[in-house]
Structures are given as C-alpha cells and as structure tokens.
Amino acid sequence: MAGMLAETWRARELLLALTEREIKTRYRRSFLGLLWSLLTPLYQVLLMTVVVKLLWKQPDDDYSVKFLCGLLPWSFFASALPTSCSAMLRARELVKRVRMPRQVLPFSVVLSCGFHFLMSVLVLLLILLLIPVRFGPAFLFLPVLMLMELLLVAGLSLIVSVLHSFYTDVEYIVTNLIMALYFLTPVIWHVGEPWIRDPEKQSVLLYNPLAVFCEGFRRIIVQKELLDPLHLGVAAAVSVGCFLVGLWFFQRREWQLPEVV
Amino acid sequence: MAAVEVRELVKHYRGLPHVGRSLKGAVIGRLTGHNMRVPTPGALQGVSLSIEPGEAVALIGPNGSGKTTLLGLISGVLAPTSGDAVAHGRVCVLLEAAVAFHPDLSGGENVLLQGMILGMSRQEALDRMDAIVAFAQAEAYIDHPVRTLSLGQRARLGFSVAAHMSPDVFLIDEVLAVVDEEFHQACYDRLSELRRSGCAVVFVSHVMDQVRAICDRAILLDGGRILADGPAEDVIRHYEALAASHRLHH
C-alpha cells in the first residue's frame, strides 16, 4: 500500500491535470459555469426551508443555516461516490491501452467534487462574515473534518470504481444506498431534534462517520463547539480504515481492470 | 539487449463468452457449474519472440488471433497467465485521439493532458508543445475545442503527441487509418527517424500497404500462436494464403 501511495505521489501532476479537466469540463458549456455549484445548494436550502415550514410548521428559526451546514458535507459524499463508480468505464480506452497509475481516475473525480465542496464552504463562511457571525476557535476544526471526509470518500471511490467495472449493477446499488443514507444521516434533521432527546440514541446515530461530518459542521458553525472526542475519534478511525482498505482492495484487483472494462 | 523480449507467453481470459464477466455471468456460471476459464478470442497459447532496438515489426493475423492481447502484454497493461513479456525503456502506445481526447477542451489542453497520461511530466509536455503542434500542422486550430476538429485533425494531434514521447518501444494498434495520404508520409518519416535513434516499433494493422511501408519484419498470429515470423513480404504472402483458405472453409 505504501508503494501505491508513492506511485500516486509520483503521478501527482497527472492527478491534478485530470482534476482540472473534470472541473473545467463540468460547466464549460453552461452560461453560469462554476456558479452552479454554489447556486444549487442555496436553491436546495430555500426549497427545503419552505417545505419544512409549510408542511411541518417547524419552529426552528435557524433551520436554513442548520440544513445548509449538513448539506455541504453530504453533497460532497453524494456527488463524488456515484460519479466515481464509472471512473474506469468512462476512461475505458486508457485503462485498456495505457500503463498508468489507474487510481488517479477515481481520485480525480473525488478531488474535483472536493474542490466544489471547498468552494461552497468558502461561500458559506463568506455569508457568515457578512451577517456577521462570531467565529470561534472551533472553526479551525472544519478543515480537519473535511480532510477526514476526503479520506473516507477516496477509499470508497477506489472500491466502487473497481467493483463497478466488474459488475455494472454497483452504480445502482450505490445510488440507492445513498438515498437511504440521506435520511439516516442528519442532513434534513439535526441530532438535537425533540424526538431524539435521549443521549443514548444520539450517540448511536453519531457512530456513522457521515453523521459526524454533517453534525460536526453544524455544531461548529451554529453552536461554535466540537462534537465529543469519542465520535470524532470513531469517524477518524473509520475514514483512515476505509482509505487503507480501499488501497488494499484496489491493489489486489487492479490488474484485471483492462480485461473487464 | 533486445528492446522487447517475450518468452512462452500464455494469456487466458476469464468469463463466459456470451455474457462476459458480469454479475449475471458470475451467477449463471455458478449455477450451471460452467468453467469460467474457457478459451476466448484473443487468448495467447505460448508465444516467444524478441525485438531488437530500431526494428519495426508488424503483427498481422485474422481478428481474434491475439494481436492486441500481445500488444497489451508487451506494454504491461495486461498481466500474463504464464510466461513473461518485458519491454526495456519507455513504452509508448499510440491511442486513437478521438477516444482519448476530451471534446470540450482545446487541442492544446488535450495535447498537454495526453502527454502526461502517456508518461511525460508537465514541464516536458509544455517544452515539446510547439514541436507537437508544428508536426501536426495544427497551429490554426490548436485553441479550438476538439469537438470542432475533424477526425483526421484529431488523429494528427494524437500521433504527434505519441511521436514526441521519445519512446524506446512504440506500439501502434491500427490507428493510422483515418489520416490523409500526406500525413501518412509524415508519420512514416517520423517512424524511421525514431527507429534510427534506436526505438523499436510494433505495428498492428490489417492494411498490408502500411505494413510494407513501415516494417521489414512481420509476425503472423493465428489462434494465439505464431504461424510465421520473418521478412514482411514472405509473411504477408503466407497470411494472404491463409486468409484465402479461411474463405474457402466458410
């Protein structure tokens, strides 16, 4: 696995060039371009706030902010994973013909989604600056959460991109699992809701690393505090573990890719 | 030292021929107890050869005879079932530009990316950019998105990138078909130039005139075995006789 990391490091220029291509081509032919990756979450927040206020008469005044905080880490996960499923198949000719470090294909998808994630977080911080909101020292932990999520998503992207090359059902399975995870993860709700006042239940929910990212963002931005070290530690361990398992799995199966794509 | 050495090379593919390697195939294979290791087109059954630096060798043979598989094994993309294939130095594969280029990026952006995919550093690719563009005679349209270029223009750019890689082993798989006559001659000249500097060329083609123009040695593959290996003209005659007898049988 160390060899694969070293190989990825040697191919960093290629990885960055492919990431740049993903970012450039995603919106190249659209009028608003990169703005879309900022408008989409804002639009989702507006829509969700209206729906929640009308339908459930949610009393929470800062629902919009709370939702947005959870939405950004979630969108990164939910956009990067299904797209990286087909990373090998979309580059079929390269996989079949060229000897290259193939992990850069899913990694470039993850990094380009990570770029949009970073941009949207910066815009969120800019909005907070304009409101203005007091920034606490807890904000310094935002990049740590983002890096943890990057490791988790990168590890998973290696696994799904290989599995999908063997079995094209994988993309559908992943998409459907993500839909279920959307409700299991505190994106449209948050862990302090009246129906989960029980600390035990809250604790169980937060063993899900995605919940830690979404709720962690929310705690830092709204309450200016961190989640407890236990849940942060579990999420960090799962993320690193996922990354290592991803490397191991990729290394074991990669040689068969040119025969199956 | 030979540029390419292949010894007792065997390559089998796994999977059922009619469904391929898929979830469905895996389930059907398990249920019917069908052996997943069945002979499939393109497999190699024990191939040995050696190519010297500066040599240009054509691989010819009917479809499914294993030409592309052999190329994949030489480049190290495929893993052999047994035996080994070694290429010494920098191996470069000529890709069809149409599939490897991104339609929305400009010619220049694609050239840069393609060069890096083939193994150049960013700096090397930037340094050679002018030479690549000049060779492809693409100055007029290098900033246009590739989707606006003709197939021939893309192929020129693709060949030009690969030809400026300074490879030690240059692999070409049937991609010179779309460019015009004039550029063919430029390609042939560039290939001889590469050969003089010690680069070995392995060329897969069904167009015998191209084989004659580029290679002095040819290898005839059929059913994953070498049927003939020798001077291009003799092997081509052998191949044409084989093709004629195949036609008689069908």
Observed structural traits:
heterodimer; A: 261 residues; mainly alpha; 75% helix; globular; B: 250 residues; alpha/beta; Rossmann fold; 6-stranded mixed beta sheet; 3-stranded antiparallel beta sheet; 9 helices; 9 strands
| Assembly of the depicted chains | heterodimer
Structural class of chain A: mainly alpha
In the CATH hierarchy, what is the superfamily of chain B? P-loop containing nucleotide triphosphate hydrolases
> From the helix content, strand content and strand pairing of chain B, which structural class follows?
alpha/beta
How many extended strands of chain B? 9
Structure overview:
- The complex is a heterodimer of chains A (261) and B (250).
- Chain A is mostly helical and 261 residues long.
- Chain A has one domain.
- Helices cover 75% and strands 0% of the residues of chain A.
- Chain B is 41% helix and 22% strand.
- Chain B has helices at 23-32, 67-75, 97-100, 107-118, 122-135, 151-163, 181-196, 208-214, 232-249, and strands at residues 4-11, 44-51, 56-60, 82-87, 91-94, 169-173, 200-204, 217-222, 225-231.
- The longest helix of chain B has 18 residues, at 232-249.
- Chain B contains nine helices and nine strands.
- Chain B has a single domain, classed as P-loop containing nucleotide triphosphate hydrolases (Rossmann fold, 3-Layer(aba) Sandwich).
- The A-B interface holds A 13-14, 17-18, 21, 24-25, 28-29, 92-94, 96-100, 166-169, 255-256, 258-260 and B 13-15, 20-23, 26, 72, 75-79, 91, 93, 95-96, 99-100, 102, 104-105, 109, 112-113, 116-119, 121-122, 173.
Give a brief rundown of this model.
With 261 residues, chain A is mainly α. Chain A has 13 helices and no strands. The mean pLDDT of chain A is 91.
Task: Please specify the SSE layout and strand pairing.
The complex is a heterodimer of chains A (261) and B (250).
Chain A (H helix, E strand, L loop, with lengths): L1 H9 L1 H16 L8 H21 L6 H23 L1 H4 L1 H6 L6 H27 L11 H25 L3 H15 L14 H7 L3 H15 L5 H25 L3 H4 L1
Helix pairs in contact in A: 2-7, 3-4, 4-7, 4-8, 4-9, 4-11, 7-8, 8-11, 8-12, 11-12
Chain B lengths: L3 E8 L11 H10 L11 E8 L4 E5 L6 H9 L6 E6 L3 E4 L2 H4 L6 H12 L3 H14 L15 H13 L5 E5 L7 H16 L3 E5 L3 H7 L2 E6 L2 E7 H18 L1
Parallel strand pairs in B: 3-7, 3-8, 5-6, 6-7
Antiparallel strand pairs in B: 1-2, 1-4, 8-9
